[in-house]
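Consider the tokenized backbone below.
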């Protein structure tokens, strides 16, 4: 292999694509300049030690935090901020926006109820015209402000519009999930999708599509027999070039189906019975080769099912043995190019399932009732994304290795953990961080916490590596993006060098450098590097290892990513 050179001088604005997390919810796009960069698939070469995490900040709410999400910068410091909803029956305020930098209060709202569960809070691109993204909240409970959908101005928390199922129908029911949906009415603003349950007089729930600007209903669709319990937006599955909507029905085990609805009209495309209430649905990239996204679902039937996005046919199932609470899609763990599935349930273990087959990659004991799970970009150094877990009755938040479930860090709590969420970099180390929401029974002084994702001090220079692909044929090109950041306010000079670990464990190289580079205070430099795989290389698993530092022995930061060389058809 031949090296093409070190990170260059072409500084770029970092942008990440939307990613689906926690039951198919779409995290909005982050555009953070310079130090607040895209979360790239990279690795720090450290062992999984089960270290104590670094608490970045905590915030005292009026009740237990049942849902917390990152949002684009609200307070102007170029760092993403955080919105959190408390339990619906706890005292006001019910909704908070706090600084991602230090947890300082930005605004609080008292004209809404909180939430029930962690799927009825979502960010949406700006609909008010102030260039600050807004917030969707779905509330449970009785009359207004319960059983309502709220569109909140992200800048100050004021209500833009609301729809109450109790007074405006078509049937009174709690809101279980909300999500942004692409523009369908031509005003170039996103719409709002929502899933609501029924009531003791009429069990039939409702799926809504609201005009994002006005809150008027574009359409409603009634679940025939039970509540609309979960919801996710999926790329076009019926050929009309518009996104569609997947709904999980349930609540009373009267309608146990996954439904696919046409996005623009709300008409039914297909349905699939999963034998019991469907508590979560998530969208996974195509796994059966038809170039259409597929669906992962789970609930009270104690198994996870993967369904063909085009017709709902079952591609695989995996029995977990207990109620499924939350599903999160994690970027390819096994290196086969297909994303995988993290399962949160009433089990004491967390499961990672192979996306193509449903086979268990790993299962790890964490603590009783691991209701909340989320995938996050790699923090522990193996080049594979990792996992955040909230153990409800295990009373701890945990970060696990995506490769094998090994504990990276664990934080014991005195309250139940109701929610964990991956967040973009909050502390300037260019790695994802983790938000934790706790129940409020008076045992902990604060209930919203933000943790450093990797539990390590920030180095003077951060190095990130982002490979284009991790499985190659002989003669193909291995390309990756190398990015370096100066985390200090002084000019720094360092060297970049890279080598390859061969399948037999021997090092090969250096394949790049050592090459010197200079970073001005706070500067980022990034460049794409590439290598051609020889025509007859050793087949098997490789590791690409790079470091920045100063000769002869000073290493400032190290990164790696795995890749494999296979023959065509393997």
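A designed sequence for it:
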């Amino acid at each position: 292999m031949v090296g093409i050179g070190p990170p260059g001088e072409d500084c770029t604005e970092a942008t990440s694509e939307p990613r689906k997390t926690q039951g198919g919810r779409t995290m909005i796009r982050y555009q953070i300049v310079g130090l607040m960069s895209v979360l790239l698939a990279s690795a720090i070469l450290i062992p999984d030690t089960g270290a104590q995490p670094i608490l970045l900040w905590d915030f005292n709410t009026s009740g237990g935090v049942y849902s917390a999400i990152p949002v684009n910068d609200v307070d102007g410091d170029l760092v993403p901020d955080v919105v959190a909803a408390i339990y619906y029956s706890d005292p006001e305020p019910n909704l908070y926006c706090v600084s991602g930098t230090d947890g300082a209060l930005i605004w609080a709202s008292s004209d809404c109820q909180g939430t029930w569960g962690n799927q009825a809070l979502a960010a949406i691109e700006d609909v008010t015209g102030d260039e600050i993204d807004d917030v969707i909240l779905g509330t449970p409970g009785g009359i207004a402000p319960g059983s309502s959908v709220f569109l909140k101005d992200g800048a100050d928390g004021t209500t833009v519009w609301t729809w109450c199922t109790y007074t405006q129908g078509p049937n009174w029911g709690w809101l279980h999930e909300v999500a942004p949906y692409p523009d369908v009415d031509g005003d170039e603003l996103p719409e709002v999708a929502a899933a609501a349950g029924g009531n003791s007089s009429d069990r039939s729930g409702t799926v809504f599509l609201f005009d994002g600007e006005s809150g008027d209903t574009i359409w409603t669709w009634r679940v025939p027999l039970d509540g609309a319990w979960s919801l996710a937006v999926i790329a076009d599955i019926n050929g009309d070039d518009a996104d569609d909507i997947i709904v999980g029905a349930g609540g009373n085990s009267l309608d146990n189906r996954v439904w696919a609805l046409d996005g623009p009209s709300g008409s039914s495309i297909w349905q699939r019975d999963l034998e019991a209430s469907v508590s979560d649905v998530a969208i996974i990239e195509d796994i059966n080769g038809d170039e259409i996204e597929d669906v992962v679902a789970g609930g009270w039937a104690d198994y996870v099912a993967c369904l063909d996005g085009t017709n709902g046919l079952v591609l695989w199932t995996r029995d977990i043995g207990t109620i499924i609470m939350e599903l999160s899609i994690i970027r390819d763990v096994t290196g086969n190019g297909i994303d995988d599935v993290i399962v949160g349930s009433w089990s004491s273990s967390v499961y990672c399932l192979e996306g193509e087959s449903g086979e268990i990659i790993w299962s790890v004991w964490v603590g009783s009732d691991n209701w909340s799970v989320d995938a996050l970009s790699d923090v522990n150094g193996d080049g594979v994304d990792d996992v955040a877990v909230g153990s409800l009755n295990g009373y701890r938040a945990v970060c696990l290795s995506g490769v094998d479930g090994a504990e990276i860090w664990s934080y014991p709590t005195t309250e139940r953990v109701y929610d964990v969420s991956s967040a973009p970099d909050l502390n300037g180390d260019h790695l994802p961080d983790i938000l934790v929401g706790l129940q409020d029974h008076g045992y902990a002084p604060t209930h919203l916490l933000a943790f450093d994702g990797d539990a390590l001090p920030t180095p003077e220079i951060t190095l990130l590596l982002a490979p284009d692909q991790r499985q190659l044929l002989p003669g193909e090109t291995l390309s990756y993006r190398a990015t370096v950041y100066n985390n200090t306010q002084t000019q720094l000079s360092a060297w970049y060098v890279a080598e390859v670990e061969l399948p037999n464990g021997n090092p090969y190289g250096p394949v790049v450098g050592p090459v010197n580079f200079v970073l001005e205070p706070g500067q980022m430099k990034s460049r794409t590097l590439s290598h051609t795989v020889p025509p007859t290389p050793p087949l098997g698993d490789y590791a690409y290892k790079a470091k920045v530092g100063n000769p002869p022995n000073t290493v400032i930061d190290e990164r790696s990513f795995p890749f494999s060389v296979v023959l065509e058809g393997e």
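Residues 165-168 form the longest helix (4 residues).
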